[in-house]
Each structure stands twice: as C-alpha cells, then as structure tokens.
Design a protein that fits this description.
By secondary structure, the chain is of the alpha/beta class. Helices cover 25% and strands 29% of the residues.
Length: 716
Amino acid sequence: MTFLNPVLLGAAALISIPLLIHLLRRQKLPVIKWAAMEFLRQSQSKLRRRVRIEELLLLLLRMTIIALVVLALARPVLRSISLPIISQNSRVYAVIVIDNSYSMGQSSERGVTAWTATKQAVHQLLTRILRPGDSVSVLLMNHTVKPLIESPTYDLRMADAQVKNAPLSFNSTDFTAGARAALALVHGAAAPVKEVYFFTDDQKSGMTSAAGQQMVWQQLSKAAHIVWVSAMSQTSEVPNLALHLRAPSRELVTANLPARLETVISNYSGISRNITLQLQLDGAPPGAPQSIEVPAYGKQSVAFTPYLPQPGIHTGSISIANSASIDGLATDNSASFVLHSRSNIPVLVQDMSPAFGGSSSSSFYLYTALQPDSTSHIFAPTLIEGRLGAVNLSRYSCVIITGITTLSANEVQALIHYVSAGGGLLIFPGPATNAVSLNSLAAKLLPAKLTAKMTSSPDQPLTLDSGSITDDPSLDIFRDASILNIGDAAFNTYFNLVPSNPIDSASAPRVLVKFSNGKPAVVSSTLGLGKVVLFASTADTRWNNLPARGAYLPLLYQIVTSLAAGPQSHVNLALDTPAVLSLPIAFSGRSVTITRPDGRHSVIPTVLGPNGVTVQYSDTDMPGIYQVTAPGYRDAFAVTLPSGEGDLRRMTNTQAFLEQEGVKAASITVVNNPNQLAAAVKLSRYGSEIWRSLVVAAMFLLGVESLLARLIGRRG
C-alpha cells in the first residue's frame, strides 16, 4: 500500500485525543467515607468491570474513527507488488501508437467509425490525462510504421493538432511492427515513467506470427507499461464483404485475345450472402452483372473475360453492387485495373536447329501455335532459321529462341540490351545445346545454368506439377487442373536447371513450374525492364509430348503475352509498390504528369539510362487509377488494396494473447471502452484508491459510537 498524500499521515497524532480524554476522566477524586456507601460497595464492584469494558470499547471506536478519517485524507492506494511506484509529480513519456489501417474505417454501433473514436480517445489522452511536463511521441501503424512525431515533444497541444489531421491509410495491420517501433523509442528515453498506448480496433488478423514477435513484446513490457485501448466497444462481430482483384493473367491483349480478370469475394460473416458483381470498363458496363453465392466465412472466385477491340489503354473496376446493407467497410468493395490492347503482338521465332520436313523442325509446333490460320491476328510471328545476325530486335515484343545451341558474344550483348529495355525472351533447349558454352557466354542473360541432361523411364515419365506453380499471374489459370491440366504431358528428357545467383533480390530467379520429381521445369528472372524465361525441355515433341496436349496453346499464349507486355506489365500494382514506366525515346529530357486517384498531381522528369527512357513513381499509397500524361503521350496504372484486412473479426482476449507472448499481467492495461481511458490510466499508474471505503467505514463506526455512547450514558 502507498499513499498519494503521505504528508497527512501526520494527523494520525489526533488518535491520542480520545486516549487523553479517557485518562483524564480516570483521575482519582477525594475519598469521603460515608457509612451508607458501605452497603453499595458490593454492588459497585460488580458494575465497575462492565463500565471499564464499555469505556474501552468507546475509546477504541473513537480512535478507529479518527484513524480511518486520517487514512482517507492521505488517499491510500492498493497495488500489486510488481507495479512501479509512481508519484503524482513523476513525469511521463508516452509513446502513442495509432492503428491507421483501413479496417479502422468500420462503423461502430454508436454510428461513428473506429478511426473517429480513436482520434477522440487520443484527444482525451493528450488534453485530460497527460499533464504539462509530460512528453509524447506519436506513431501511425499499419503493416509498416510511420512516425507522426518521432522525437519526444512537450507540446501536447501541437501533438493533438497533428493527430486530428492524421490520415487513414489503405494498408493492413501489423501490431508487432508497432511494438518494435515503440520499443526503439522507449529504450532511448530518459523519463522516469514510460507508457506505450495502442489505439486499435483489435483486429485478429493484425496479430501475425512474425519472427521474433515474442521477444519484442517481452522487451516492451519490461521497458514500459502498455495501455491497450479498443476503439470498438461493441462485442458483436461486424459483418463485411471484401473484393480482391488478382493481378490480371494477361495485362496485354489484342482484339482477338480476351482479358481475364479474376476476383475473389470473401464473406467475413456467419451468414451466406448472395453477391452481385458489376464490371466497369472505360466508364461503362460491358455486360450484365454476375451474381454468386458466397458461403459463411468462405470465399468465391469470379472471372470476367472482356474483349478490348480498340487498341490503347483501358481502365476499369469491379465492384460489389449490393453491399450497402450487409457490409461494415466500404473501402474493400471495389478494385481497379488497367489493361493495354494492341492490334497484334509481333514475335520473333529464332530456330537455331532448323530441319527440313516440317514437323521435324524444333520451331514447327511453336510457330504454328502462334499463327494457327490466316484469320488469327493475335500474334504476328516472324521465323528466322540459324543465327540472329543483324536482326533489329526492337521491332518485336517477344523473342523466342528454340533449339538453342550456343550464343556468340555479340548475340548475348544484343539480347541483354533488348531485354533490359523491356523486351521478353523465351528460350527452349534442344539436342544440339552446348550447355558448357552457353553457361559461360550467357551467364548474365540466363536465369539458370543448364547442367546435366537427364532422362526418365518411358514407363514412368516426368510430368509438370500444377501444385508447384508460383504466384506468377500469367500461370494462375493452370493451378486448377480441372480447367487446364498441364500435368498430362510426359517428359522423357530435360536439362537440370540450377537457378543463378542473383545480383540483387529484385532480379532473383524464380522457379515458375517444377517437374513431378521436384526439379525446375520453367525458370524466369528479370533483367532491367524485361524478363527472361527458360524451359528445361524442348519446344517440339522430341523430348516431351506437351505440344500435342490441350494445355500447350494456352500455356504458350500466357507466357508469350506476359513477356511481350514488357514494362507495361507493371500497370497493376500492389499498394506501396513503385511504378516504373517506360516511354518512347523521344520523351528523353521531358516530364510527365501523374494524377493520383484523389486528384493530386505530381510532375516527374524522365530519366534516360541503360533501360531506355523511364519514369519512377513511388507515391502509390492509395488504391485506384493513376493517370500518366504528357503532350502526345497517355498511360495509366492501377493500385489495389492488400487482401485480408477486410476480416473485421476481433481478438476475444487481448490480454491473454499478450501474456502468452511473455507480457506480465501487471505490465498491461486493457481498456475496452475509450470512455473509461482516464480511470484505467489512473488505476494503472497509482493502483486502486480505497479512501471512499474508508470514509464509509468511518461514518458507520461513528453511528455505532453514538448509539453505544447513548446507551451507556442512559444506564449511567
């Protein structure tokens, strides 16, 4: 027990007053012998003991009453032995961590959003709880942490104004990121009392199992007292529907090749929902809306395949049309996209192992697939047999080398320059491939080394494993074997591919597909603005029967269109991903204007470098369409929300979770209602005051004393 007003404990000396009065009343009076009193002596001896007990009882009651009043004035506090002793004059350093993820835009049962309730609670903290002389830092927390006020400030009024103007982000939540940033601040602070305040909607998905998470929370609880404030006082779940648009499998299409836009609808409620989806393309719906049933706490995928007959840039969106009455968060009800359409896609097919006799040539199946008949205008393939020579590669959106033998130094340099400027390169080996020479001369170009030539038993040939497909958008449609099965092709010969060591993480090779034995079948890597894809087996039927299978044509189309898109394949981005745009050489030294979805403009100068004329823009923290314009030039790119943040389910017991992470119960205070913040902070700092109980006890004993004194006096 401690006392908030320990000076008043000196008044405990008043307890001696009833004792002094009692002693003074016991002074002996002069004794006068009177014969009649002898008859009363026997009766007096019997009453004397009872009177003495009654007087002692009154004395104890009066002393207890005074003691209770003195203790009440000294304001005693009951506290756990593990809590630090905080005096009224101690200065506090408070780190305020504010969750500004987009789930904070959800509405509470009081009709205000969690974001508004959080700002009101922080205002209460800065104006009514913290006092002059206290210092604060303010952090905005989502999947990353942005300091709003990093260095401690004593200007609480200024901090309150900055919090009022703080923006709500469009990112997801990561509580451990906030704890890590707060720990860095409190470790360097010299204040005697350190407190860390988390203001959040208690979103369950924000508690990720990050590496080192437990250590962060343990260290934070040792360095400061944690106050966890929930902006949502309701206990019932908030139903929500969330729409997530996967990156288009084809961002570059032609009039005869439809786009494929796949959305995933998540139903974060316990009731099955009938959803209506509407596609908007260039400001108008190209068709009727689609209706689907999404099960409770389930997901449902829907694909739109619009044709884009007009060449150029096309923008659009997919949205939930009937979400108003069954949705707690409007932010994630739509997603935008950008597509590029061309009249056709020029492709160069170089056959390094030409053969006479039609199908015996390594390029026969591939060239035929790119131009199946004279009416198909998706691709415009050009076939070259032998060496590249002095071919102008810049005329082609994609270059395919089939039956590769080796490459000369000049060919390697020409291909590196072509890919770096945004071109796409697809390579197939063959029986005449010189792996040693190729690995030596084209090490900077190839995503993997070709090592030993492997064979499989005719009775047990290898197949492509659809389950090994990575998150490359161009291959997403092959994940479901019931739609397109790439696993029914047999491979009897292939090169063992060993991915190259990356120069940096951005250019690291990726294994797009594996064989059934786990070996890489298709490997890709980026080089400048372009991409290189290397197959482990041939493009014809000498080492496999893939060209004779139904999945060959769509697989080839997906890979070639992805490679042909070049820098334009960066037009559908995740939030906070920098946009890199490639412009014609004529725009060197000029600037472009980028207009954000909120209408804010930025003028960005172009840069002429090894990859041609480019523009890089990193202010992509808002979902929607970004327009790119310059005199004689127009482009666009889209930014989408992260998935998962639409799950508004809350943690059932925040304190229990943090205690599992090693946080001591005495080191955390959970406030389930922002209106109770002041009382909770007071309790966490000083413990539980009991002066009211002491006053009530003193009043009760005073009544008992009065009644007892009256009874004794009456008998006297």
